[in-house]
TrEMBL record:
Residues 1-65 form the LexA repressor DNA-binding domain. The gene is lexA. Represses a number of genes involved in the response to DNA damage (SOS response), including recA and lexA. In the presence of single-stranded DNA, RecA interacts with LexA causing an autocatalytic cleavage which disrupts the DNA-binding part of LexA, leading to derepression of the SOS regulon and eventually DNA repair. This is LexA repressor. It comes from Paenibacillus herberti. GO terms for molecular function: DNA binding; serine-type endopeptidase activity. It is an enzyme of class 3 (hydrolase). The keyword DNA repair applies. CDD domains: HTH_ARSR, S24_LexA-like.
Amino acid sequence: MSKVSNRQQAILDFIKNEVREKGYPPSVREIGEAVGLASSSTVHGHLDRLEKKGMIRRDPTKPRAIEILDGDSPSELPFPTSVSKIPVVGKVTAGLPITATENIEEYFPLPAHFVGDHEVFMLSVVGESMIEAGIHSGDYVIVRQQSSASNGDIVVAMTEDDEATVKTFYKEKDHIRLQPENSSMEPIRLKNVSILGKVIGLFRDFH
């Protein structure tokens, strides 16, 4: 096994501890704060070197995806019992349950107390239609599955074109208004909307 510096060992130890305690790896900013590095680029440099040495494996397409390796095989760091594995849904397919196996891209750990007994999924946001609500393209919304909504709820809805969209819900006299939180965009008005769930949280990776 390649030798690592004291700083790199501190980074490895911090990642292991965070996974054991929380169930998911820390962000680059959290790693920097823990080991005394103010620059995220410096943290990235250490992570790059650890990856080249075969100590970690990263997936740039997934949030916080840092896997600790033990020799040539992954080191299985158990999820604590207080963590729930939440399905991250890629494409929403009309006529299938939202968490149908073919829709799920990966699982993401969240604290069990946050999820409770509800059925919850995560969905990647594409586009700028909700930026004035603080939801940006590339964010992951955390969604509680439910088929109804109250006015002002931010929901994931299936439109008449079988497209899943994140918008603010309003039931009006003879239609449903799905309101974008972007003053440059027009609302969607529909007679029928299928509510897939209510947005209850947000995950953003500052990587």
